Task: structure prediction
Amino acid sequence: EVQLVESGGGLVQPGRSLRLSCAASGFTFDDYAMYWVRQAPGKGLEWVAYISWNSGGIGYADSVKGRFTISRDNAEHSLYLQMNSLRAEDTALYYCAKGRVLNSRELDYWGQGTLVTVSS
Amino acid sequence: QSALTQPPSASGSPGQSVTISCTGTSRDVGYYNYVSWYQQHPGKAPKLMIYEVSKRPSGVPDRFSGSKSGNTASLTVSGLQAEDEADYYCSSYAGSNILVFGGGTKLTVL
Result:
């Protein structure tokens, strides 16, 4: 059974940093692209970042480019999101999601999310 | 990276069909056949319903279908059931490892 478990969320002051993690199990992690998607309270889905199976391809939403860094450790079956210079508008539930097939553009499994609140 | 455009709401009675549109540009929906649709019930994670414009993952009822014409993709739900009431989001690949979502459509089953 595919499982994606996010962690690392919490309350953080504007301008500070936070690192999210996603522990994957139930599939061959290094065969799939991975994504971070966020959802602000009461709002829609917003794609945040993408990383290919071998970290050779990476993409960011304009809203986080230069502040967030996606990475993965295939040996540890883990996905990460380093978030720097956090802003109030980064407050959201952050989902980790798996690409359907190698480097695919659709997300077939999602975690339950970890909540990030940016506030002073 | 502009969000795709979806109507905020849609509705239909049980048994009826409803279609939700998703409008992008010639740089995303109109160029790539990587349009996906997701269903999200309140408090739950999204679920993939359609990928590559019209393909259904295993386990998704064939009442759900997808299509595309030009810069607009569509999701049709036929034979509406109460459990179809949810938020629906489209997404499209936009090149250069960029993905874009629509703003979401709240589907109400009357």
